[in-house]
Amino acid sequence: MNKSELIDAIAADAGITKAAAKLALESFLGNVGSTLKKGGRVSLVGFGSWSVSSRAARDGRNPQTGKTIKIAAKNVVKFKAGAELEGAVN
To answer: Where does 40-89 sit in CATH, by number?
Structure first.
């Protein structure tokens, strides 16, 4: 499912226009992104939670040349699925 298919599904389920569903989805994604950017955590009970984790700098290898390269430290987003979501998949 891509973004436009998700918007269509939200609009059909909620009985709202596609424009309203698009606005709601973009608001949700924007709020999740801004919360994570501030270092916060977003939790939806039963669905899952997003958090930010720091990944330390490390050495890596270029697979073509075999040379050692430096991989910079960065923040990464992690998602942990909730019990209801895991149950729905299994």
So the answer is: 4.10.520.10
First to last CA, the chain: 19
Q: What is the mean pLDDT of residues 32-59?
A: 95
CA distance 50 to 46: 13
Which pLDDT value is given to residue 76? 96
SS3 label, residue 24: helix
Domain ranges in the chain?
1-38, 40-89
Using CB atoms within 10 Å of the CB of residue 42, give its burial: 0 to 12 exposed, 13 to 18 middle, 19+ buried.
Answer: middle
The predicted model scores a pTM of 0.78
- DSSP designation for 73: -
